[in-house]
Amino acid sequence: MDQQRSAFRGSAVKSPGSAYSPSSTQQAQGPRDVVPVRGGQLYVVIRRRLQELRKDHPTWRILTQALELTTEMATFRAEVRDENDVVVATGHDRAFGENCVPLAETGAIGRAISVVGYGSDDVLERIEEEEE
Q1: For the whole model, what pTM was predicted?
Q2: Mean per-residue pLDDT for 21-25?
Q3: What is the residue extent of each domain of the chain?
Q4: CA atoms 42, 45, 46, 51: torsion sign
């Protein structure tokens, strides 16, 4: 199956030990952009990382392609393309289970945008700077 579409969900990891604490204004804006997870790590959701990418590069596109789909497993490839339609980064992910399609697609997007500088650490630094 050859499917392409865009997606805007997911998360990426921030190292443990960060002093990040969401402000009350950020918490009031809706879903949290940074969420703590087991082990003290912080995750920046892909939705927020995509917002930052689109703010800096409004003409860039993200394309996803299903490489393998079954009822219990999905494998996706994501491409980040610049304004000249040149592929600047790719990411792949595979997921299993009931929600495997959105999970694999999201994971592939998160990996691709991390390659071009929109990983969790990079975006978390921007969020902290905005709050200062």
Answers
A1: 0.72
A2: 39
A3: 4-131
A4: negative
